[in-house]
């Protein structure tokens, strides 16, 4: 508010073009003085409740000794300016109110450099907000992410045209994503326009193993591979080849599938699926290594299990004597039973081995003793005997079987 009226009150008015502005002149302490409203050209709009101005867009909303309220419909920019409230006192009092007219952008347009871009390219987008008042602020978004553009403002009479430029490097992930131009202006809310990006990109290729689904590729078994490719435009040319070698004769290629019904070691190598479109060519590789066919292993016997287990048990016990002392207190029942079984088996084997060693020692001593007896008997009494016969008799102690011995040695 401005002016010299101490007894008058009014407020500034901001209105969007085409809408209604309401101007109010109020008196704090009424003394029945005359109130009137004047336009920026100081023409009287209302004198008390009478309208001398021929503009029918002005209508009386309220009139009393303390207020004169007037509405102005279909506001245009030409209506902008200072309006005066006057109170006919002595001396007269006056105050003014400022009417500001906002103009939203007439049009919001995105102009894109290329309707269809190729991934990796940098494209230019321009968004223009025409004929606004005040000048528009333009914001850019790609999806939910805000981007930064560069704006230029042009003034035409009382209007402003704003153009914002955005440079955007596009990738395949941008295909189908909206680029949004949003207006930030006091006269309008949620005014925006958008363009969907169309990005061409070369194929993305993937090779998957259908069979065997899991496990090794073994000799004699089948192998089935599938090649999938996605691109824009969708690739139509897809082919299989063997890297650095010719494709085996028995390989069957059916569209995107590759089948080897009976694998052998000569099939080892790298198999490549290539796909191409208007943008370019891509490939994916599958390295094949054919393993030996599975061999049938007989089920292990009790003896084999025992023999294998015993050294393990002995080794473990020897190596971890100290930790075992602490671990035993926390060992479960199952562990205790296993330890007992292993100890029993080990004890039995040790006893058998010990018995066999003892038997060998006894037999050895037995044969050694008999051989020694022969030599001892032969020599016993030889020193005192005059001849061999006497020596034999002396050695045997004159027993009756000396004759037999005599005959044996002759």
UniProtKB/TrEMBL annotation:
One matching Pfam family: C2-set_2
Domain named Ig-like: residues: 1-100, 105-198, 203-277
Cited Gene3D superfamilies: Immunoglobulins
Transmembrane spans: 343-363
Keyword Iron belongs to the record: no
GO BP terms, alphabetized: cell recognition; detection of stimulus; homophilic cell adhesion via plasma membrane adhesion molecules; susceptibility to natural killer cell mediated cytotoxicity
Alphabetical UniProt keywords: Cell membrane, Disulfide bond, Glycoprotein, Immunoglobulin domain, Membrane, Phosphoprotein, Repeat, Signal, Synapse, Transmembrane, Transmembrane helix
One GO MF term attached to the UniProt entry: signaling receptor binding
InterPro entries: CD80_C2-set, Ig-like_dom, Ig-like_dom_sf, Ig-like_fold, Ig_sub, Ig_sub2, Ig_V-set, Neurexin-like
UniProt feature coiled coil, ranges: none
GO cellular component, as recorded: neuron projection; plasma membrane; synapse
Matches recorded under SMART domains: 4.1m, IG, IGc2
Topology in the lipid bilayer: Single-pass type I membrane protein
Origin: domain of life: Eukaryota
UniProt-annotated location(s): Cell membrane; Synapse
The family this protein is said to belong to: Belongs to the nectin family.
Assembly: Homodimer (via Ig-like V-type domain). Interacts with FARP1. Interacts (via Ig-like V-type domain) with CRTAM (via Ig-like V-type domain); the interaction competes with CRTAM homodimerization and CADM1 homodimerization. Interacts (via C-terminus) with EPB41L3/DAL1. The interaction with EPB41L3/DAL1 may act to anchor CADM1 to the actin cytoskeleton. Interacts (via C-terminus) with MPP2 (via PDZ domain). Interacts (via C-terminus) with MPP3 (via PDZ domain); this interaction connects CADM1 with DLG1. Interacts (via C-terminus) with PALS2 (via PDZ domain).
Protein name in the entry: Cell adhesion molecule 1
Species whose genome carries this gene: Drymodes brunneopygia
Lineage of origin: Eukaryota, Metazoa, Chordata, Craniata, Vertebrata
């Amino acid at each position: 508010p401005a002016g010299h009226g101490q007894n008058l009150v009014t407020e500034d008015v901001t209105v969007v073009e085409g809408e209604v502005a309401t101007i109010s002149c109020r008196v704090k302490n009424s003394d029945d003085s005359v109130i009137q409203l004047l336009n920026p050209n100081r023409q009287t709009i209302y004198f008390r409740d009478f309208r001398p101005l021929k503009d029918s867009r002005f209508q009386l909303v309220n009139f009393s000794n303390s207020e004169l309220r007037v509405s102005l419909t279909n506001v245009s920019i030409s209506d902008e300016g200072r309006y005066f409230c006057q109170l006919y006192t002595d001396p007269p009092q006056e105050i003014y109110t400022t009417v500001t007219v906002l103009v939203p952008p007439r049009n919001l347009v995105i102009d894109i450099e290329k309707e269809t871009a190729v991934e990796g390219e940098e494209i230019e987008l321009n968004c223009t907000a025409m004929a606004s008042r005040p000048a528009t602020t333009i914001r850019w978004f790609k999806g939910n992410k805000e981007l930064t553009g560069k704006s230029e403002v042009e003034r035409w009479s009382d209007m402003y045209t704003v153009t914002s430029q955005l440079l955007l490097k596009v990738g395949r992930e941008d295909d189908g994503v909206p680029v949004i131009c949003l207006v930030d202006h006091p006269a309008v809310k949620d005014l925006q326009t958008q363009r969907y990006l169309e990005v061409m990109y070369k194929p993305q290729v993937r090779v998957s193993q259908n069979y065997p689904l899991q496990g090794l590729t073994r000799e004699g078994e089948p192998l089935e591979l599938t090649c999938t490719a996605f691109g824009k435009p969708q690739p139509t040319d897809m082919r299989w080849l063997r890297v650095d070698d010719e494709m085996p004769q028995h390989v069957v290629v059916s569209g995107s599938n590759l089948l080897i019904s009976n694998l052998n070691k000569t099939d080892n190598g790298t198999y490549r699926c290539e796909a191409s479109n208007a943008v370019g060519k891509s490939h994916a590789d599958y390295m094949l290594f054919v393993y030996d066919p599975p061999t049938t292993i007989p089920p292990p016997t009790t003896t084999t299990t025992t023999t294998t287990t015993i050294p393990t048990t002995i080794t473990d016990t020897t190596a971890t004597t100290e930790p075992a002392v602490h671990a035993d207190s926390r060992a479960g029942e199952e562990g205790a039973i296993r330890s007992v079984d292993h100890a029993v088996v080990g004890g039995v084997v040790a006893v058998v081995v010990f018995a066999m060693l003892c038997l060998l020692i006894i037999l050895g001593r037995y044969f050694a003793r008999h051989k020694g007896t022969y030599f001892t008997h032969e020599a016993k009494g030889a020193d005192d005997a005059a001849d061999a016969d006497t020596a034999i008799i002396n050695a045997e102690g004159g027993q009756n079987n000396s004759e037999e011995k005599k005959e044996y040695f002759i």
